[in-house]
Batch of 2 targets.
Target 1
Amino acid sequence: MQFYFFHLMSWPYLPDDFDEKYDSAWIWVPNALYDPVKGHQLYQEYIDTLAYADELGFDGVCVNEHHQNAYGLMPSPNIIAGALTQRTKRCKIAVVGNALPMYNPPLRVAEEFAMLDVMSGGRLVAGMVIGGGPEYFAYGVNPTFARERYREALDLIVKAWTTPGPFVWNGRHYFLRYVNPWPRPLQQPHPPIWIPGVGSLETIEFVAQRRYGYMGIPYFHIDVFKRTFEMFREACAKAGYTPAPEQLGWGVPIYVAETDKQAREEFEPALWYFVKNLLKGIGTTPPGYTSPKSAVAIMKNQDKFLAVQKSWDDIEKGMFAIVGSPQTVRQKLDDCLKKLGAGVVLTGCQTGATATHLARKSMELLAREVLPHFRNKVV
Amino acid sequence: MFETLKKLKYGARVLLARGGGQPETIDVAGRSTVIIHGGDGPPFVYLHSTLGEAFMWFPFYQTWAKQFKVYAPTHPGFGASAGFDRIDTVEDMAFHYVELFDALGLEQVNLGGVSLGGWIAAEFAVRWPERVRKLWIAGAPGLWVEEEPLPDMFRYMREPAKLRELCFHEPNSAMARTIFPDDADDERRMKGYQALTVLARLVWDRPYNPKLAERLRRVQCPVLLVWGDKDRLVPPSYGEAYRKHLPQAEMKRIPNCGHLLMFEREKEFVEIVANFCK
């Protein structure tokens, strides 16, 4: 069982009346609300916290890409990952991921990921995502080509890493006379590829066929993950193999404190800040981003999403977050992992507006009193 | 009560008009294309808006059909019309239509459309001016007016109230609520999403064609521009922009009318267009 520390780098300083005054924390949320002086301090703290995860013995750290929003302040996760290659010694650095259709040419991703892999001594996990709906508004990239461009870009990147250059790429969306990236990745044939997903059958089958890792994106009810992972195992069986545990990742916020009561007191305000403010607008999906059928299905699945949960009871029952004393968290993780059969946990340890000193305390307790229980354990 | 009666009245007219045309599927250079047609007289081709209002024989077709042979094809990607995989831009739509006219043996037509349909008609007329006898454009994008940027309707696509406000002068009318109901069923939502997908393909990168303005000089035939004077989605200034590049054009504004002229001020709109195409 592997534990990765997932950081979103959220903006924790939205005004108290944000929920009443603004309809979204994405795309058109006025950037006057961002304060670069506080921002400087925040990047320091967040990078320190990620480096601390390495010291504490987490298997890896995760960063990801979002544009023009208060939810995640890494328009370029590769910059943070670059800093982490120098601040961490042994853990994996998972960029989950680069939103491929946002890069033109996507060769840029092949280059930057290869840089990170070489700089980190072969510790990169290469995440490739389509990118959330809001990114298409934020970047003006045509959503009706999202899936086509994503597939073509992914094929281009993998070929750039595995076929000696230079070669010509002649695709529907990209034409490159010379594909010949310097540097090439250190890990051979290429860094492990993770694909985050929210349960669409199309993506599940694709990832299963390619034998990549499928990372279930957090903030859904445990039943959604259960169904998704079952679908993934079926898709692997159809492709003629049993997936390795590391091929299944489960994203979930975790918070540990001395007692159950204290954990809830310390974590609950930070979580509601996240739910009420930062998730607002995350579902702004442009037309063509999915098929009409999936679009209607997604609208109907909204009650399984964290953003519409109203009470702490909802959070606990749906396992939207694992919160409590070390003993409670151990127990809950054990139950969930048995249910899900995932081999990787992507733990959001500084969700929403969690203060840095509390996040660090929670990480310490998690690393010292929970993770050893799961070491060398395969569910 | 009155609003309900108005709804019923329109419904009855829809029913009566039904005999006029039934959707048929024709082959356009390998793409199966849905088209409805009816009436007798000179050919008159109507290009629909993003609403996809060519899926049935609406009363306004019936009125035109008294004077013209009316054709209302469904664009590639809408409804059951195929060929969306070959469409990247509005120009590709125009190429589809030259092949559709060839397939139907239409040498020259009265051509026009509302909103997206009007833009496609303009793109067609700059490329094949000899195939257009008269051109009419209603509430159409295609150009850009710096002082009045078009609103982002994709931002509001899941908010029927906002769509009614953008597309109707009277957003609370029975008609506005019929076109954008608050409680659309799955089938209708899926249709709407499919239609907006086609629109997004065409306009997401840039909601106009920067080359269209200077190409408009190639249009040789008489041109009519029709705009709802309260069009909030594509304001009348866009009609004026077309007129600037089409010196032969006349511009008619319909008072107290929003974007969807054929539904909000059907009678005036249908008459203006019919008189022009005579």
Target 2
Amino acid sequence: MIAELGGFLGLLALVLALSQGALGLVGGHRDDARLSAAAAAAAQACAVALLVSFAALIALFVRSDFSVAVVANNSHTFKPLIYKIAGVWGNHEGSMLLWCLISATFGAMMANLRGGISQGVWSRAVGIQGLVTAAALAYTLFLSSPFARLDPAPLQGGDLNPLLQDPALAIHPPMLYLGYVGMSAPFSLALGALIAGQVDQGWARAVRPWALAAWTFLTIGIALGSYWAYYELGWGGWWFWDPVENASFMPWLAAAALLHSAIVTERRGSLASWTILLAILAFGLALLGTFLVRSGVLTSVHAFAVDPRRGVAVLTMLAVALGAGLALYAWRAPSLARPAGFVAVSRDGALLANNLGLAVATGTVLVGTLYPLLVDAISNEIISVGPPYFNATFGPLMAAMFVILPFAPFLTWRKGDAAYAARQLWLAGAVAVAGLVAVALLWKGAFWVSIGVGLGLWLIVGAFTYVWKRWGQGGARTPARLLALPLAVWAMSLAHAGLGVMTIGAVAETGFRSEKSVRLAPGESTDFAGRTVKLLSVDQIEGPNYYGDRARLDVSLPGKAPQRAAPERRLYPAAGSGTSEVAILSDWTGDYYIALGEPSRTDGGQAGWTVRLYKNPLVHLIFVGALMMALGGVCAMTGLARARRRAPAPEPAAQGGAPQPVAAE
Amino acid sequence: MAKRMTRQQRRLAVIGVAGLVLAVTAGLVLSNLKPVYFRGPTELATSAKVGELVRIGGLVKEGSVARDAQGNLLFEVTDTANAVKVRYAGDPPDLFRENQGVVVEAKLTKDGAFEASRVLAKHDEKYMPKEVAEAIKRKGEWRGPSDTPVPAAQTTTTSGAGS
């Protein structure tokens, strides 16, 4: 019954989403407020129907109803409750329903928050969002229904892949999907504005919170996935330039470009057509990501050809969304041209450089991700494009952008003073050069690491120099005045400093990581990275749905009490596979990372175990940096919400205006 | 220099800078897009060039895993018809087993063995690395289930110190 209820509510939601689309578009076209209000109501009803439908799917997983195919394939009665629930989105069908739910929820939020845009644009945007939801929902219900029954029902389920039974990975997919699908809101607003032919500063103002939200969720989702890979895959890697990772990284880059260009459009009215184009392309990349991850095309182009319906459906969605978006853009963009004069050295110019860099970087990742697929499809050759390609193309672009970045806040709109900005940044420059030289001297041959550390310090000190500057502006630097700084200042500084922190972590980990693999019998010890590791014993353990071995190790610095580490190897019999649960001892210098390997003979012929030891210097900075960026996103959203409450109507931003010493924001 | 640029000149400047960035990036892309080709053991048995980096997919041949005097891991990768010898200066990833799928990035050395820089083993029963499936398919004996899509990096990897 629950499954049928879920399926029925899904169909109901599809009808509601289609009506939302029709009512919104017609209401906008005829300028009929009643039709638009009906579209908004349909959007809310659609979200509620999908919420209940999704709750029904969760109930099926919690009750282990194996007469439902998805549950039978991906769940197990012995699985802990949290992973029964996480199993709902740990598979294709359930995750697609989540995609629809999020799209409908964004639609309902758009229906509630008009955000100062005109009735015509708003109504059409709600309509477009309804069509996006409807397309995803039709695909979910007709090509990959999570509510399909199995007859006869198996007595026990196939279990969720044990690698995915992990707290970080339980919330990783929803975060990522909030980001992917979040890009649909700027897309809908862009199309709504194009159809209505009204792209103004108020529109850009309305787009910003959505772009920020999507970017923030993507940041959190990608960071969680990276952190999971770091501790769960058992060898300390955190980024692989894997196509699945790139699939989420490209929308992230595009969203970052969008949220910067929308600032220019809001403040200055320029770059409007570029902002629109970015909103369309960013959603295209999010759909491409969904396609890459969900169609099986990455496993093999041929696997995709075996059951092409799903892949073709997502590709069709991608083609229609991009095609319609770009056609509208080509039709309307010439009328949007609204040139605002500015010189290269200005806030506008710096943000343009940011957009150029991010867009080109997205392109390089796109080429490296799609090239193997194209070669496979055309010539039947399987090839791989590895990290060297991405490091050689993406790295220099980012380095060039990082050099420019700290200047941007010190430049005024329209026409900035480069010498003034440079004078403000003398400390950041000095710290960066000192760090670069120190690393280069202390670790000979670590050229790239020293460049990365220098750039990272440049970003961090530069970001806080700006906070310091704003703090001292128009009064003494009292704590109260520090707290009273606009949230936008904190948001930007946190995010940019986070980028620097992450850069330092990434280059230090990549450049200075070390590893050692030893075979130890109980009682034996080994020295690695300044510590002594002694294997005490290896015991059998049993969990709710796994069994395995747990090692007890003493890790000691000379002259200090030992720390206990307990890495495990687990086998999940229902899924027929295992995981490695590593032990990580962290301090400020980085992680001491211990994985338990296979039982094996030691060189002395005793029964022992392979123990793999890694020293990952400063690796935590990578995740701290990502967290700072996400916090920056949250601060920026809060700031926008506050500004909106204070000034509900969009203020006419100063066109041109006299150059201020330091512009707001 | 001090003269104000006209709007057209400014636009030209922006396009020029953008074009320059694009050109440099395109150069970087083209010079670095050196793909690593996949080869099955049967293909390698007849056409392997010394020094070329390839990805080899197949199964770890039963009874072939050993260590040499220098502590290198030795094993053979087979597509059930032919096999190639691989030497790896490191420890195998967690799920490296005999008769299980493995993907190796390696260069052929003069002594006829492949020197591996990366060894990837499959990580769960539902998933076979596409190179492994392809190796067995190219040999002409494929009758497996349709491949299942997998989440990120679902393989364990170990990298040689020098890679």
